[in-house]
Amino acid sequence: MTREILIRDLSKCVVCDVCTTVCKDRHGRARMNLEGPRFPRYQLPNVCRNCPDTPCVTACRLDGMKERGGRTFVTDACKGCNKCVEACPFGVVTLLPIEHKKKEGFFARVLGLARSAEPKAIVGHVASDASRCVQCGVCGYNCPQGIQVRDYARRGKTVDDPRCVRCGLCIEVCPRGTLRWDIAPEIPSPMFRADKCNLCDGYAESACVKECPTQALLRIPADERLLNMNEALYHETVGKYLAAADDRRHSGGVK
Amino acid sequence: MTRHVIIGNGAAGVTAAEEIRERDPRGHVVVISGEPYPMYSRPGLAYVVIDEVSDQQVIARKPEWYSQERITLLFGKAASIDIAARYVHLEDGRAAHYDRLLIASGARAVPPPYPGADLDGVLYLDTLDSAKQMLAKAKTARRAVVIGGGITAMEMAEGLAHHGVDTHYFVRKNTLWSTVFNETESKLLEQRIVGRGVTIHYNTEITEILGGADGRVRGVRLNNGDDFRCDLVGAAIGVKPQIEFARGTPIQVDRGILVNDRLETTVPDVYAAGDCAQVWDRWSQKHMLDVLWPTAIAAGRVAGANMAGAHQTYMKGVPFNACLLFGLHVTAIGQLGGGRGDDGEVLQHIDRGSSEVWATRPQSYASAWSQDGANTVRLVLDGDRLAGALIVGRQTLADPLRDLIEHQTDIRPLLPHLRAGGAAMAEHIQQFWRNTIHS
Known about the structure:
The complex is a heterodimer. By secondary structure, chain A is an alpha+beta fold. Chain A has helices at about 20-25, 55-60, 85, 105-110, 140, 150-155, 170-175, 205-210, 230-250, and strands at about 5-10, 40-45, 65-70, 70-75, 95, 125-130, 180, 190-195, 215-220. The longest helix of chain A is centred in the last third of the chain and has 20 residues, at about 230-250. The two termini of chain A are about 15 Å apart. The mean pLDDT of chain A is about 80. Chain B is of the alpha/beta class. Chain B has helices at about 10-25, 45-50, 65-70, 130-140, 150-160, 185-195, 295-305, 400-405, 415-420, 425-439; strands at about 5, 30-35, 70-75, 80, 85-90, 95, 100-105, 105-110, 120-125, 145, 165-170, 200, 205-210, 215-220, 225-230, 230-235, 240, 255-260, 270, 275-280, 285-290, 320-325, 330-335, 365-370, 375-380, 385-390. The longest helix of chain B is centred in the last third of the chain and has 15 residues, at about 295-305. The relative contact order of chain B is 0.12.
């Protein structure tokens, strides 16, 4: 599968907002909005651009963000540590509180695509072993909440800071094995999970593209050059796909 | 009010200051820092050079902590101690009067003992400034040579390779970390090191560091006479206690400052702790140096308590270090024994992050070995007690073994399984440990 991005054909779009509405219906949150850089006839909505260098995947230290077939998507290993959110150059990854995650739709369940039910929430805290800690601060450096975990580890205390989101990143990055969950061998339910457009991975078609009444939204192969906001390049690359899409529409074979 | 003066702003010094403050809320506490930073984590420098943590974050106590605890932080280097008048004189001419003095001045990297050690481009991983210097130099350097047999040398190699420098690691022996590792363990680490793009040259020594007319490193000369071009030389051939200011005083000094089990020196009201202190070791029945963070913390706590009037005895614990080398977890506990006799020269200077105890072994000993792919456990047995353990890779046994070694648990029921070795050994050890801690 090639890398693809979503673009909006401004000459067709009537700004009815159906795309964001269906996106919200499907995913529980609109993963796209219609802001974003505009060029004479087309625009890049604020949505995942499937960067070729995948900074979100690189930033993740927990296998929570993966790249497959030119798409990046959030996996079940995501613990909501915020690293991908910080890494995304376009600001299109968000953390969602786990409780608010919408259940998979009817068809997804019928087709066997539904994820297994969320495990029962287990409340746990990060515990520490003072004799292993060398106060290097790697834990606090990685903490999405800015908690100085080492101040707890120094005294062998359990991290009871209410800001802790139980992502477990400090445990993962500690080079000395100082930190652990205090409820071993279980792992507590994380409080957040990253959420981003994955071009409706697991569905036959992207909801926004399919439901757009004027076929203004298109999934086009993402040319490497598209990442540089250069109008001339857009004409050269996007223009070609728009023309092809026009042809398909006229011939009645709209995808 | 008692005036407590502490020379040294590292793990031992700051822990002692904290302990004194807790026991003596009204006393004066002055900490003399030879480096222009609040206390930072020296082991953390290894993670600074691989960008795992920033040079700001590695500072473990903020300046506010000192004011909060009413600890005066004095930046300056100690030059001499006037025992009779009870003054510490600093290099800049200032002086601090003490009622009780703690020497916790730590240890410093030893420069390479051959010509060219003072050239621009010879790097150490010893202080926060040296780590910053290494990062700055790595930006423009193309090729680096790293020398030294211990953890710090490998951390330097990892840091330089991480920043895209073509890194060559020169090892004197035919295995890595030869004072502690056996051949299999060395091979496991070698795979990781080579995987990160570092070239290892075994049985290679340097005889000279070559410099250009500009005073910069341009290569090294090897023991076979060849010249090897490079822009940087990372040297981690050991550290040595920083105690020059104590020489020539009645304080008795060997390689470090000699202390008794209360961490008192031979002069009343003067204590020593941390990397600079040579402490009586119940394992080997000798005064030994430890350049380890946990021992510095433990000793600092006892020294601080005794300075504040307590009568605590410092029991030198089992030397323990858990480190991450090129992504490989290694835990070393107790006596592991390459033996000092066969290579006294290597141990002339102790490495940072290591203990002299590791290189020793019991009089008569047996060993047990278990390997499961890239995970190994090696045990050194002294009769029916465990004397040491080295755990590479999976770390599930690290805590159980440390417990069994520290508590000198009688492991007779475990011995048949240890003799059998193999993958089942791990399960038996864990089972045995669970039973002993619950009984």
